[in-house]
Known about the structure:
Elements: E1 18-21, H1 25-31, E2 35-43, E3 46-53, E4 56-62, H2 67-80, E5 85-93, E6 103-111, E7 126-127, H3 130-142, E8 147-154, H4 176-183, E9 189-191, H5 194-203, E10 208-217, E11 222-223, H6 226-244
Parallel strand pairs: 1-4, 1-5, 5-10, 6-8, 8-9
Antiparallel strand pairs: 2-3, 3-4, 5-9, 6-7, 6-10, 10-11
Helix pairs in contact: 2-5, 3-6
Amino acid sequence: MDNIHLNEVDAADLGEVTLLVGDPARVELISSDWEHPKLISKNREFILVSGIWKGKKVSICSTGIGIGSTEIAIMELIRSGAKKFVRLGGCGAWSDMLSPGDLLLNHAMVRDPGMLHQYVSDVYPAAADPALLATIQSQAEQNGLNVHTGIGMTTQSYYLGQSREHGIKNGPQPDQSFMNYWKERHILNCEMESAVLFILASLYQIPAANCLVVHVSRMNESWVPDEDYKELHKEAAKIVLDACI
């Protein structure tokens, strides 16, 4: 069966690991450090590039924001023969333990009710591959980065679903008790893609993990400056690739 979005991609196009990023612009940012980067597919929010990192073929694909487009990318990459996934992205910290610019590796994710119910029951765990996660953690610590592990949350909403103010007077307003509820249960961070990766990778037996840059602390709304954020993603990508190959 041919892919509908990642057109004419097969196993020979994909490397030892496929990095997943939300932002299509991050594909060029990260792959610019590779040897012989080659555009494999470009359609809508999905850009797939493969190249050589320290003698090994590796790949990177953008997924867009949220579980809907991420599901499309992952399913078509699995069908094309992807061997291993690591999501490189950003997150908001819900814990004082984390500071903007830190790295976070989630070993599991809480998720919204009903998300991916077509694939599996809501009680099915969204968990990373433990061996892959441990390898990335070790590599990050060797590089002197401030790295954390713990359980995060994947939501289908950026505003109300993450207790964010939206500045609209009429209509539903943020419920701050939502974030407090999960903080009390030691959820460290919130983002919008990792759970779908963990679930699909578990179902189709492909190692997967994430490596997230803390973009903002929700405790005080302090953000990493954009240029620093880009450099942190490049550094995180190098750590993940070294760990995977």
